[in-house]
């Protein structure tokens, strides 16, 4: 299977790990932080996206007015994502093949090792979706599905949990994008004060709509007042 071919991938390809020429920033002079790199089947990394190629999600938890500068940043993010996609298609055909794997299979491989970050409910939903499409995907040729579908009562309980979890994860993605932070929440030391101020501003904006108790239930990070420099 094309999506299972081995590739060497840098799993931490954030902007902070890429050095460019001072004279010409289009020239990459070095890439650091290779310690977690490995050779794996391409499908394991089909959902990995470097921060410079990640689009910025729109908020849905609250109506937050987006300034003109932020709109331009979103447009630039879309262009970078499109350029990265074209580059992968031309220069990394193994990864491109994995990108085009069925979405439910892709999500299974992407989420199975991220339950510590996204929550078990997200992976449970992936398993349910995959179990429902087991025959459609012709996986029954390998044997019966090992994951039993939930009972109606279990499904209702899961749907409530999953909806709450999705809201938290969506908010997390939005806040990270506005802060310009990596997926791990990292920001550089010289940007800490500016990022902290923006974090405080975002927290207060959402708190106006959700209230103190509501914001505490869904805010994916420590309160701004609890963060230390």
Number of strands: 4
Number of helices: 7
Report the mean per-residue pLDDT as an integer. Answer: 86
Sketch the major β-sheet.
2 strands, antiparallel
Radius of gyration: 20 Å
Low-confidence spans: none
Category from helices, strands and their pairing: mainly alpha
Q: Which bin fits the share of residues in helices?
A: 40-55%
Using the alpha-carbon principal axes, give the shape.
flat
Strand order of the largest sheet: 1-4
Approximately what portion of the residues adopt beta-strand conformation? 5-15%
Q: Would you list the SSEs in sequence order as H and E?
A: EEEEHHHHHHH
The N- and C-terminal alpha carbons lie at a distance of: 49 Å
Task: Describe, in plain words, how this protein is organized in 3D.
The protein is mainly alpha-helical and 229 residues long. It has seven helices and four strands. The chain has helices spanning 68-91, 93-99, 103-111, 115-118, 120-132, 152-179, 192-218, and strands spanning 6-9, 18-20, 28-31, 38-41. The strands form two sheets. A two-stranded antiparallel ribbon has the order 1-4. Strand 2 and strand 3 form a beta hairpin. The longest helix has 28 residues, at 152-179. It is flat. The N and C termini lie far apart (49 Å). The model has no long low-confidence stretch (mean pLDDT 86).
Topology record:
Blueprint: E1 6-9, E2 18-20, E3 28-31, E4 38-41, H1 68-91, H2 93-99, H3 103-111, H4 115-118, H5 120-132, H6 152-179, H7 192-218
Helix pairs in contact: 1-2, 3-5, 6-7
Q: Summarize this, please?
A:
The protein is mainly alpha-helical. Helix content is 49%, strand content 7%.
